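INFO  loader      accepted 1 record
INFO  loader      residues=244
INFO  predictor   begin
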Amino acid sequence: MKFDVVIGNPPYQSGDKIGRGGSKKLWKEFLEIAISNSDYVSLIVPPTVLAPSTFGDINKRVSLISFNINHHFPGVGSDFCRLVIHGNDVETTRVETREGTFVEFPAGTRPFLPSKYNDRYVELERKLLGTGRVWKQGLDPRSIKYSTIGQHKLIHSAENTYYTDKAHPQVGTYRVHIRFTGKPNFQVTFDDIVSSIHWYTTFDTYEDAQEYADKLNTAEVCEFLTLSKYSGMTYKQTLESLEV
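INFO  predictor   done
INFO  writer      dumping tokens
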């Protein structure tokens, strides 16, 4: 049986624990079933539907996203958004911010939208986005032997710094890097190796690298990265679109 329209506010998760203390996300199953069995879908779901892992599969077919619906659920602390999804591709995606402002862009041109999509995010997006630089992920520490001593420092988390004697192509290049856990903080390195919880971009000179790091460490860029963040998943897309 196929329906013309599916409208709903599905349950978000089951009570059955899976993985590391998490719960099974039922809303995703409802979304997939609704899309496969109707021409139009309008569901109220968590804003994590707009993270790259999910939104990238449907962004060409979404005609409306509304973040301004919490007033319909007084006393409920969770965030919500409403999606309208078509069976075929659409030309334009219209987004209502948390404050009720409407924004439009060509459908499929956004790989994700942040869960805190508000007027401030739109303001920063218009100011900062353009054509940026190529960013790469750092080295997986499991691929090399490391310890508390060694020739090269391996920059990992804020709490852990390791060393290794194994040379790596990173070493000897000027890099601006950022750890995608914690608050945004761009730093320059030359002799050190950055781990896989970092993104980095390379430069020919220290002066160029430091100048770029200073531009990225401004309050507006750090605020924009914080608003865009999905546990670090969106850092690369955002960084590569920053024109500062």
